[in-house]
């Protein structure tokens, strides 16, 4: 009897070890799959990730070639692209109901900002996420907890530090038509958000909405300020050109008067 107990325990232990090894080997693939599976239902846009290399022992790693597509109706090829995102996860939280991400560091993202009517691409994505959040809350109210949703809302998330540095903004649509090359590569102010979901039960969609909402404010604020500066610069250039043309006209007029013996005063 004891022999069979030891054999059974050995099989269970082997199974556990195998599962751990599989998680270690496939954690990156799992994150890539999660991003591409849960991202589009949340944003209603294309979401891609090139690769994810995460150590299950330290929880630290790198995500490469992140792509957030634009909503329908916008012409620029993407809303945001980033070659490198560094991430650190509390590995103990991976098997719990609340995954704790200690830090997300986005280095050098390229933001494409495009206006359309009274809205823009980022505000449209934020509105899409808000609809997703509202749908999740409606499902919860109907008692669908425990069921796997298409947005991963059964899992809660906490992000201790969300940092964006060295970002650039490219203007699109009418803004690019107006400012040309001057509307490309505008510096995005550094962003640092703390304790997202720390004191509340926050779903991935809610966290995404909060982050993108903050980023939208920084992007639109920067674009508004830069647009104002560009308009002022263009205005001064036009004013200077007009003034120069006026002085040239006075000189020509004086020369003509001199030819006919008139005063040049």
Characterize this entry briefly.
The protein has four helices and ten strands, in the order αββββββαββαββα. It is α+β, with helices and mostly antiparallel strands.
Percent helix range: 40-55%
> Could you list the spans in which at least 5 consecutive residues all have pLDDT below 50?
251-265
What number is the mean pLDDT? 75
The number of helices is 4
Structural class: alpha+beta
Major sheet summary line: 10 strands, mixed
Rg, alpha carbons: 28 Å
β-sheet strand percentage: 25-35%
Total beta strands: 10
Report what the structure shows.
By secondary structure, this protein is of the alpha+beta class. It has one domain. The chain contains four helices and ten strands; from the N terminus they run H-E-E-E-E-E-E-H-E-E-H-E-E-H. The chain is globular.
């Amino acid at each position: 009897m004891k022999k069979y107990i030891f054999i059974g325990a050995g099989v269970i232990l082997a199974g556990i070890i195998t599962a751990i090894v599989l998680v270690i080997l496939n954690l990156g693939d799992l994150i890539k799959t999660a991003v591409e599976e849960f991202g589009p239902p949340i944003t209603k846009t294309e979401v891609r990730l090139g690769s994810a290399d995460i150590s299950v022992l330290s929880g630290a790693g790198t995500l490469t070639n992140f792509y957030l597509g634009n909503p329908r109706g916008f012409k620029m090829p993407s809303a945001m692209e980033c070659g490198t995102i560094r991430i650190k996860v509390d590995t103990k939280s991976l098997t719990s109901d609340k995954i704790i991400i200690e830090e997300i560091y986005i280095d050098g993202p390229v933001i494409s900002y495009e206006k359309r009517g009274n809205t823009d691409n980022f505000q449209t994505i934020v509105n899409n996420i808000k609809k997703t959040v509202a749908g999740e809350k409606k499902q919860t109210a109907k008692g669908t907890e425990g069921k796997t949703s298409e947005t991963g809302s059964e899992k809660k998330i906490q992000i201790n530090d969300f940092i964006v540095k060295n970002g650039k903004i490219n203007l699109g649509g009418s803004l690019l038509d107006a400012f040309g090359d001057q509307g490309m590569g505008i510096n995005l102010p550094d962003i640092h958000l703390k304790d997202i979901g720390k004191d509340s039960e926050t779903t991935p969609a809610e966290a995404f909405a909060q982050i993108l909402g903050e980023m939208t404010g920084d992007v639109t604020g920067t674009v508004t300020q830069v647009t104002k500066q560009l308009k002022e610069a263009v205005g001064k250039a036009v004013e200077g050109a007009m003034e120069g043309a006026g002085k040239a006209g006075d000189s020509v007029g004086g020369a003509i008067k001199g030819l006919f013996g008139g005063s040049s005063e």
